[in-house]
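Ligand-bound model needed. iron/sulfur cluster.
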Amino acid sequence: MTAPRTYHITTFGCQMNKADSERMAGILDALGLEACEDANQADVVLYNTCTIRDNAEQKVYSYLGRQAKRKHQQPDLTLIVAGCVAQQEGEQLLRRVPELDLVMGPQHANRLGDLLEQVLDGNQVVATEPIHIVEDITKPRRDSAVCAWVNVIYGCNERCTYCVVPGVRGQEQSRPPDAIRAELVELGRQGYREVTLLGQNIDAYGRDLPGSRSDGRHSHTFTDLLYAVHDVPGIERLRFATSHPRYFTERLIRACAELPKVCEHFHIPFQSGDNAILKAMARGYTHEKYRRIIAKIRELMPQAAISADAIVGFPGETEAQFENTLRLVEDIGFDQLNTAAYSPRPGTPAARWENQVSEDVKRDRLQRLNRLVEVKAAERSQRYLGNIEEILVEGENPKNPAQVMGRTRGNRLTFFDGDCARLRGQVVPVKITQVRAFSLTGEGVTGAIAQPPLQPIASP
Ligand code: SF4
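Prediction:
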C-alpha cells in the first residue's frame, strides 16, 4: 500500500484532547505526512473524541458515517478514532464502523507512529489497554505560536459518580518535574510567552511520583512544580487547569499570589451549591469549603478571575437544591461558568440511579442558570472598564482584521486596533473602553505601564 500523504485531525472536547491532538499532529508531521485543511480530502483522517456527555459522543458517529462511505470509494483511506469514545467503546467501535483502521485510547496518543505502522502492514488495530504513558519526544504541532498547552498529569483517581474520565483516561500519571521544565525551556527558546499547565485534576499532581509518602504528603506537589518552572526564560505567563476544591490548598493560593508569572485566573469546578448533591456526586467538599477557597483567593488577589463548571439536574436534585446552586453563583459572581445538564454516562454509578431528573426540568434549570451566569459575568467585566490591562496578543481578531486579540491576566478575551504581525506575542498595555459579559474592547496605550495587579491589603 502506498504511503498516505496527507492527514486531518478533528478534535472534540477539552484542552487535554487539544494537547493530545497537537502531539499526534507532530508525530504525523515527523512521519512525513502533511496537514490538510479538509477532512474529506485527507488520506489519514483522525477524530480525537470526547464522551463527557452523550451529545459529545454522538457527534463523532455522524462524521464517521460519511468517512466510511468515502472509504468504499478510496480503500487506502486510513480512518482513526482516538480519545475518550475510542477508549470507552474499544472493539465495539469496529463492529459499529467496520471501515475503521485504528481505535486508540488517550493513553496511546504518543504511540500513534507505531500503531499507524501496524495499520500500514494491513492490520486493524485496537489500542485501549492501560499503559504507562511514555514521554513524547516529537515536537507537537501547536495551534498557537504564543500560548502552549503542557500536560503535567494524565488521568484521574477521583470517583465522581457522574464522570467517565477515570474510566477512559485511567489512573493518574504525573510527568516528572524535570521533563515538564525541559518542555517549558524548549517552548521559551521557541518564543512562546504563555504556558497553560494541564491536568484533569491538576492539584493531584505528584502524588503518584516516587518519593510520595504513605501519610499522603508527597514531595512533589503542584505548588512545588509552579516554583520549579517559574523562572524559565521567555515564558511570561503561567496558567493551569483544572483544579479540584478537595485538594486546593492555601499554600497554592499563597504561591500564586507570590509568583508574578502566575496569572490571577483560577478554574475551580464546584458542580453544585448543595451539600447533599455534592455528597451524591462524591466530590469530597461542601459549598462552605468552596466559598472559603474563593474568599482566600480574593483576600490575597482581589482582582483574581474565577471560572468554574456546574451541572444541573443531577439525579435526585430538587428545586430547593438547584436554588442552592443559583445562590452560590449569585454570591460568588463568576467571571465564567461552564454549565451543563446532567448526562448519564456509560459505566458511571449515577447513570444507574432511579431518581433521574426529567429532560424538561433539566432544560428549564439550565436556562435559568445561564441567564444568571450572563448577568454576573457582565457585572464582573465592569471592573475592567477604564483600567489599563496587560494583554498578551495571540493573533488577529477573526471578525476584524484591523484588530488584534489577546487575554488579560484574568483570561478575559480582549480586542483592540493593532498590527498583528508587529504585536503577536507582545504584552501590550491596553486601556479598556468597552466591556461585555465575556469579552472586552480597548485601545493600545503606548508608553503607559499597565496597572500592576492590586497588592493585597496587609492584614492587621
Ligand atoms: S475530578 Fe471528578 S469530574 Fe474531574 S475528571 Fe476526575 S472524576 Fe471526573
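The chain has a mean pLDDT of 93.
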